[in-house]
Amino acid sequence: MDVLTRPAEQLSYDDVTLRRWRQGDADLAFRLVSDSLEHLRPWMSWAAEYSPEDAREYLLSCEREWQDGTAFNYLISENGVPCGSAGLMARIGPGGLEIGYWVAREHTGRGIATAAAAALTEAALGLPGIERTEIVHDLSNAASGQVPRKLGYARVGTGAGRFPRAPGECGTSAIWRLVRPPAG
Fold first, then answer.
1. Within its chain, how far is the Cα of 125 from the centroid?
2. How far, in Å, CA of 72 to CA of 98, rounded?
3. In this structure, are strands 71-78 and 16-20 parallel, antiparallel, or unpaired?
4. Which regions in the chain score pLDDT beneath 70?
């Protein structure tokens, strides 16, 4: 992706706002993850052990990746209350961005992940050169699979998981894709 072309630092969809993570958010990031470790561990291998240093490292990588144009990570808030994280990652080849998300345990089931993914889909497909977005999740994570389904993504296949497996994962990912509609 052209590093000069980036999504906006703040996005919104209904009552959900996404704003770019900042280095000063380390305590917030640590608290959000720590408060939801039992909820995240089955699906996120990085949640097995999580420390304040991990939060700081994550935010440093967010800054580096934003500058490199390889990932654009956001804090999710609903009505001003921080409740998760989402991002666009340039790891599915030219012309595409992958969307990832997680929502803190006490905020699940309210459509927050769907709203965040909708905002990211709109932002991604509004960028020059981006023709498709994908959402990838473990087949065992049925809740995560509802998000692309609700947004009109088509399930285009399955594949081996790209990351170390978390305890709840089967190791096979569902791949969902949405392609930019033709102009005109």
1. 15
2. 10
3. antiparallel
4. 1-4, 184
| Stated pTM of the model | 0.93
Task: Pull the structure tokens for residue 108.
Answer: 């699940």
How far apart, in whole angstroms, are the C-alpha atoms of residue 32 and residue 132? Answer: 30
Q: Are 13 and 116 in contact (CB under 8 A)?
A: yes
Centroid of chain to Cα 174? 15
CB 80 within 8 A of CB 54: no
pLDDT, tens digit, 9 for 90 and up, residues 11-23: 999 999 999 999 9
Vertex 173, ends 125 and 19: CA angle to 5°? 40
Decide: 99 and 133 in contact? Cβ < 8 Å: yes
Q: Are strands 71-78 and 81-89 parallel, antiparallel or unpaired?
A: antiparallel
Other beta carbons within 10 Å of 151:
19
Contact 150, 114 (CB under 8 A): yes
Q: Name every residue whose Cβ is closer than 8 Å to that of residue 122 and which is 6 or more positions away in sequence.
A: 11, 13
State the Cα–Cα distance between residues 70 and 179, nearest whole angstrom: 20
Per-residue model confidence (pLDDT) at position 168: 84
> Would you say how long the chain is, in residues?
184
Give me the residue label for tokens 């240093």: 53
Please report, as a single letter, which amino acid is at residue 87: G
Apex 174 CA angle, 42 and 92, nearest 5: 105
